[in-house]
């Protein structure tokens, strides 16, 4: 029975990880829910056609030479939910 639980747990993690790696649609989350997801996972790929980028929990997930830039994404309850993304310091957009 323990082996079956282990196999089910591994399968669930594999499926959720592969789905998560493809990105999330910000529109299925509330703004607070999206922020909680990002904090829990440290970074999340937003798979939204006009965004298609990673968002991060804080600046510690940016590399050297990058800074946090606020950008809005639509969520279920907010058309302009602000999220953090890393951008090169000299990036102007």
Description:
With 93 residues, the chain is an alpha+beta fold. It has one domain (2-88). It is 33% helix and 26% strand. The protein has 2 helices and 4 strands. The strands form 2 sheets. The protein has a two-stranded antiparallel sheet. A hairpin with a 7-residue loop joins strand 3 and strand 4. The radius of gyration is 16 Å and the shape is globular. The model is unreliable at 1-19 (pLDDT under 50).
Please summarize the sheet with the most strands: 2 strands, antiparallel
Task: Tell how many strands the DSSP assignment holds.
Answer: 4
Question: Structural class, from secondary structure content?
Answer: alpha+beta
How many DSSP helices?
2
Q: Strand order of the main beta sheet, please?
A: 1-2
Overall domain count? 1
What distance lies between the first and last C-alpha atoms, to the nearest angstrom? 55 Å
Order of helices and strands: HHEEEE
* Range of strand content: 25-35%
Low-confidence stretches: 1-19
Cα radius of gyration in angstroms: 16 Å
Anisotropy-based shape: globular
Fraction of helical residues = 25-40%
Q: What is the average of the pLDDT values?
A: 82
Describe this protein with a few key phrases.
about 90 residues, alpha+beta, two-stranded antiparallel ribbon, 2 helices, 4 strands, about 35% helix, globular
What can be said about this structure in brief?
This protein has helices at 2-21, 31-41, and strands at residues 43-46, 53-56, 66-73, 81-88. With 93 residues, the protein is α+β, with helices and mostly antiparallel strands. The strands form 2 sheets. The protein has a two-stranded antiparallel sheet with strand order 1-2.
């Amino acid at each position: 029975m323990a082996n079956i639980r282990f196999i089910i747990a591994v399968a669930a993690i594999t499926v959720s990880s592969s789905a998560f790696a493809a990105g999330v649609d910000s529109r299925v989350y509330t703004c607070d829910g999206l922020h909680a997801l990002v904090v829990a996972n440290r970074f999340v790929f937003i798979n939204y056609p006009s965004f298609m980028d990673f968002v991060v929990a804080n600046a510690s997930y940016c590399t050297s030479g990058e800074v946090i830039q606020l950008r809005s994404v639509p969520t279920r309850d907010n058309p302009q939910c602000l999220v953090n993304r890393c951008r090169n310091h000299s990036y102007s957009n």
